[in-house]
Design a protein that fits this description.
UvrD-like_ATP-bd; hydrolase activity; DNA_helicase_UvrD/REP; seven-stranded mixed beta sheet; alpha/beta; 28 helices; globular; binds adenosine-5'-triphosphate; 765 residues
Length: 765
């Protein structure tokens, strides 16, 4: 326990800091008021200017210039306002809690105390009252134990002596807790934070980042950073702090919209959406794989991971598994690369391009253009050259068409509105020139659909080409008849405008390689959460689609909910093998923070003995396992909900699939205040939630009830991943309800890990 005068001295330091921050805040508030009035003022003047008479040519030009100038002024004023608003927010946060850490260092005999918080604050005398947690020197706070430590500077590593490390919890400008520690970041504060109730939004963890998490956050060298972390080890938290870190260190050349996070579902996106704003940063872009694919396949319906999981529950034969394994592998994508190289000397699956119900360019004509090009040209260049030729020929046709009678007739009958829409505010030196301009516009409009079809590459039938490719790709392990049947299914799907999930990345890859398109060069960083849900083929495609992006990929192979049934072996090894040329760094997180120790140890017991997983030492009740007959199960569940509601605000009932969730929801009475969560749900309410466990990925709840953990539903060894994921969503309380016969995955565990409640008549404590 620290002495009282230490507490007083530190409180005085907090008061001084808060005082100076408040002074700055007063200035900023004033500036913000001025900026707001200025913006309003300019907007008003801008509005007046546009009312100027614009019938005279000179006036109009003048007005245009004035409008442009006003627009720039408005943009500058709005920008200034935005900047001030973000400063205001940052300072307001500092007033509440100016910092969370202090380090005392001795550098060449010179003693210095540094205070670490969410943002830097420099006072009028240029003293650093608070250092941003991302400043290079702040790494000492996270990495160092007392004694000699080093931190990176632009001139290389610097050694200093760390003599004190102090942690604070400050709220409303008052120190609530304060501890000195020799650990990297001490347990006491972490205990207090982790014991809190869950929230609709994930919290930032800057005050208590752990050493291994810090390595993830501050890695700047890897092209492919792979984080394998046990459930609840802070992977998602670390990656969000990493984004904040990267934005801070690359202010001049990196914007938040040059970063993309692939997240498992929309609920998750909502859950994490407040972390970056709480650190004063803009959010990166977020997308789910399903959204990304359906955007790239505009018009077609791409099977989602969730659809497929539900279908697999009904039937998933061994041969289908083998085909899926192959199509999702790196060698399969390599075969596409090889196919594209060789196919450029053969006819491609082109479409006839129709115009007014007759082929304008036939596929034979298009293939002739394509095949007449030099054989050694890159396939993508060849395609673009073909496209250019088609456009040139269409333009030639337009040049001929403008002189035809129908065009002159059309001009004569043009309404005033149509005339104005075509001519706009253009000026012509003569009537003839105006006539020629209008004629060209009319003809171009007439051919616009055809032009768009060429421009958007509709003349390539990539689906047929994909089937052609598949015919060349049957592996020795799969009987030809089975492979042919699969190709037939792909063709039928295509007829129905459907794309199977395992075909999606390969088709896009084939299309992009053939057409030299689909690459986004502006994205600098790409983050993939729940990496085990992605196929290697999808990673190959992502790497192709974002060629300049550095990848941070995180997940847990023990939470392999979607592919455990057909995919064995080490995911990370397969991933590394797919990208042998990338500079890779692997970090492993083995300590789990989310749940109480009894919950984590129960979940851990499911995994192979050698799994490195350590529970954070937070006390809690033993998980409960209830077994009930079918008839008594609803009653048992209701009682358990009632029992948990006394303690917690959010209780999630997790089922194996959506269908079970729907049925269960229908049988619960409205008195239970239950919400059914589905794939389209965007935010999580408080109360009792029913959802399939795959939608709960990445999320956490105060209490979890695993529903129907029975021999029939969780009886296979591949169900371990599902059950482990389910159990590790709980923070404070976990109950498993078995209906009929309890799952052998549970009965085979040492009963010391849980409290067994076999009779539902028992009065629940
Ligand atoms: N250093 C830390 N300080 C405070 N809380 C932490 C820390 N690390 C993790 N946590 C907390 O632990 C919980 C789990 O973190 P997170 O969701 O980031 O883990 P994860 O590894 O992504 O989990 P999962 O794979 O199970 O979805 C969160 O409540 C998070 O706030």
């Amino acid at each position: 326990m620290l002495q009282e005068d230490t507490q007083q001295q530190e409180q005085a330091r907090v008061d001084l800091t808060v005082d100076q921050v408040n002074q700055r805040l007063t200035v900023i508030n004033q500036q913000l008021d001025n900026a707001y009035n200025e913006t309003k003022d300019i907007e008003q003047r801008y509005g007046d200017t546009t009312k100027v008479n614009i019938t005279e040519v000179d006036d109009r030009m003048e007005t245009n210039a004035a409008v442009q100038q006003q627009k720039q002024l408005v943009a500058a004023a709005v920008e200034n306002e935005k900047l001030l608003t973000s400063q205001q927010k940052r300072l307001t946060d500092l007033v509440d809690s100016p910092y969370f850490g202090r380090i005392d260092i001795n550098e060449d005999g010179e003693e210095e105390s540094l205070y670490i918080g969410t943002a830097t604050f420099i006072n009028e005398q240029d003293q650093f009252l608070v250092y941003d947690w991302r400043a290079p020197i702040a790494s000492i706070y996270y990495n160092g134990t007392l004694g000699t430590v080093s931190y990176d500077t632009p001139n290389g590593p610097v050694k200093v002596d760390l003599t004190l490390k102090r942690q604070f919890k400050i709220k409303n400008g008052q120190i609530e807790h304060l501890f000195d520690t020799n650990e990297t970041v001490g347990d006491e504060l972490l205990q207090a934070i982790l014991g809190q109730q869950s929230d609709e939004y994930m919290q930032n963890i800057v005050a208590t980042i752990q050493k291994e998490q810090n390595d993830i956050i501050r890695d700047t060298t890897a092209d492919l950073l792979i984080v394998q972390g046990v459930a609840g080890s802070g992977k998602t938290s670390a990656v969000l702090q990493r984004i904040a870190f990267l934005l801070y260190h690359s202010r001049s050349h990196l914007e938040a919209d040059q970063m993309v996070l692939f997240s498992p579902n929309r609920l998750f996106s909502h859950y994490i959406s407040e972390v970056l704003p709480s650190l004063g940063e803009k959010n990166m872009r977020q997308v789910t794989m399903a959204e990304f694919l359906s955007h790239r396949f505009s018009g077609l319906q791409v099977e989602t991971l969730f659809d497929r999981f539900e279908k697999d529950q009904a039937s998933f034969p061994e041969m289908t598994q083998a085909i899926r394994r192959f199509k999702e592998s790196a060698p399969f994508m390599q075969q596409i690369t090889d196919y594209v190289k060789q196919v450029s000397t053969q006819p491609l699956a082109f479409n006839d391009l129709y115009f007014e119900d007759r082929p304008f360019f036939t596929k034979a004509q298009i293939n002739k253009i394509y095949l007449d090009l030099p054989h050694n040209m890159r396939p993508g260049d060849k395609f673009i050259a073909t496209k250019n030729t088609l456009i040139k020929r269409l333009k030639r046709q337009i040049n001929l068409e403008v002189h035809l009678d129908w065009v002159a007739e059309k001009i004569d009958t043009l309404s005033d509105d149509d005339y104005r829409a075509i001519v706009g505010d253009r000026e012509f030196d003569s009537g003839d020139l105006e006539q020629a301009f209008i004629a060209r516009e009319i003809v171009q409009n007439y051919f616009a659909d055809l032009y768009d079809a060429i421009y958007n590459d509709y003349f390539l039938d990539v689906y047929t080409e994909y089937q052609n490719f598949l015919r060349t790709a049957c592996p020795a392990t799969i009987p030809v008849a089975v492979w042919e049947a699969m190709i037939e299914t792909v063709a039928q799907n295509n007829e129905r405008h459907l794309v199977g999930l395992s075909d999606a990345a390969p088709i896009l890859y084939l299309r992009d390689l053939l057409t030299d398109s689909g690459q986004n060069h502006s994205i600098q960083y790409l983050f993939v959460d729940e990496m085990q849900d992605y196929s290697i083929a999808q990673f190959v495609y992502l790497q192709h689609a974002f060629p300049n992006a550095k990848f941070t990929v995180l997940g847990d192979y023990a939470q392999d909910v979607f592919t455990a049934t057909y995919q064995a072996g080490n995911f990370i090894e397969r991933l590394c093998a797919a990208f042998p040329k990338l500079k890779t760094n692997q970090i492993s997180l083995t300590k789990s923070y989310r749940a109480t120790a009894p919950i984590t140890n129960f979940a851990k017991a499911l995994l192979p003995k050698e799994t490195a997983l350590q529970a954070f030492s937070r006390d809690g009740r033993l998980p409960r396992v209830i077994t009930a007959t079918k008839e008594a199960s609803l009653n048992a569940l209701t009682q358990e909900i009632f029992h948990l509601q006394k303690r917690h605000a959010t209780i999630a009932i997790l089922t194996k699939d959506q269908q079970t969730a729907r049925q269960l929801f229908a049988s619960l009475t409205p008195d239970d205040q239950v919400t059914l969560i589905s794939e389209t749900t965007r935010s999580l309410p408080k109360g009792v939630l029913v959802l399939p466990l795959y939608l709960a990925k990445g999320l956490e709840f105060d209490a979890v009830i695993g529903y129907d953990i029975s021999a029939t539903t969780f009886g296979q060894s591949s169900d371990v991943d599902l059950l482990y994921t389910l159990m590790t969503r709980a923070m404070h309380d976990l109950t498993l309800l078995g209906i009929g016969t309890l799952s052998p995955l549970i009965t085979s565990l040492d009963p010391q890990y849980y409290q067994n409640v076999t009779t539902t008549k028992e009065t629940i404590a």
